[in-house]
Write a structure and sequence with these properties.
140 residues, alpha+beta, Endonuclease, Chain A, four-stranded mixed sheet, 4 strands, 42% helix
Length: 140
């Protein structure tokens, strides 16, 4: 099956995909700020450059896109029908990097929390974020 876009259009579309300040990440940040949490963004000194770092609670939060991080059993994590092998390898590398970074962060004493984009859909967002806040408060 061929791509629905020509090469130049596909390149443009892919270039517009953000790695920082995504809608799911902004939702999480807005919620945490409203709950009184203060945080740092994209701490480069930590493995994996976590999306949100809560130094007071020694906790980091990754906000993962379901597609890019191969979220298991998720409808948003489907493999494209074109260049399938490339995408399978790419997502496998992302998952391997995630595991490595989480191990390193835990060995440094950080609590690591991961939120997937599907958990931030309208019907699940409050429940998902409240669970995350509970886990952070248990850290105290």
């Amino acid at each position: 099956m061929a791509d629905i876009f020509d090469k130049e259009t596909r390149s443009y579309v892919m270039s517009r995909i953000r790695s920082k300040d995504t809608k799911p990440e902004l939702l999480v940040r807005k919620y945490f700020f409203s709950q009184g949490f203060r945080y740092r963004l994209h701490e480069k000194k930590l493995p994996g450059t976590p999306d949100i770092t809560l130094p007071k609670y020694h906790t980091v939060i990754f906000v993962h896109g379901c597609f890019w991080h191969g979220h298991k059993n998720c409808k948003y994590a489907c493999i494209p029908k074109t260049r399938t092998e490339f995408w399978m390898n790419k997502i496998a590398r992302n998952k391997m990097n995630d595991r490595t970074n989480i191990k390193l962060l835990k060995s440094l004493g950080w609590q690591v929390l991961v939120i997937h984009e599907c958990q931030l859909k309208k019907d699940k967002i409050n429940r998902s974020l409240k669970k995350i806040v509970e886990k952070i408060n248990q850290r105290l």
